[in-house]
Design a protein that fits this description.
Layout lengths: L2 H13 L3 E5 L5 H7 L8 E6 L3 H8 L3 H7 L4 H14 L4 E7 L13 E11 L4 E11 L4 H35 L4
Helix pairs in contact: 1-6
């Protein structure tokens, strides 16, 4: 079991948040890592493995023109996949993976080009607002290594966002407990 997945489930559960996953090149591996964690059902809503490009548009609401112009391996596609699965499955957080695991390039992108994204209720100035973050990766290795590193990377990105949300809220609580100091 992936320790990042266990941390993700713990943080989501503590906050009462839910998670949905959109996967392409990882083909369900992200969902498998999360559901391997005991108690994942408290936070995990489900996943969509949209391996075929047209499913990214049909199931996740990715812009068809974007897919036509740039292909499925694109940072905006990753961001829209994360937002789309979050909306489609009614989750607080959405994460997504899209990229080229090989053995051949795809859409003019070399093997190892991967984009991972997170979309969630980021803290705004006055209230939680939706927003997304995307990380571009250039991975080396064989197909299996690229896919597993993509899983690790998307979980790390989500964990980073969850931890920053947690830290921000704890600081606010500490300030309240200490009379505003």
């Amino acid at each position: 079991m992936n320790s990042s997945a266990a941390q993700v489930v713990r943080l989501l559960t503590v906050k009462g948040w839910t998670l949905a996953v959109a996967e392409s090149l990882t083909g369900g591996l992200v969902a498998a890592e999360i559901t391997a964690v005991p108690g994942a059902s408290q936070a995990f809503r489900g996943s969509v493995t949209a391996y075929a490009t047209e499913l990214k548009q049909e199931l996740l609401g990715v812009d068809a023109t974007l897919l036509d112009q740039r292909g499925a391996v694109d940072p905006q596609v990753a961001a829209q996949m994360a937002a789309g699965v979050r909306k489609a499955l009614g989750a607080d957080w959405g994460i997504a993976t899209t990229g080229v695991a090989g053995p051949e390039p795809q859409d003019g992108k070399p093997v190892g080009t991967v984009f991972v994204a997170v979309d969630g209720p980021f803290e705004g100035a006055s209230e939680a607002v939706s927003g997304g973050k995307v990380t571009a990766l250039r991975l080396n290795g064989d197909r299996a290594e690229i896919r597993m590193e993509s899983v690790r990377s998307v979980l790390a990105l989500l964990l980073e966002e969850l931890a920053s949300e947690q830290t921000g809220n704890e600081r606010a609580q500490d300030t309240e407990r200490n009379g505003g100091f």
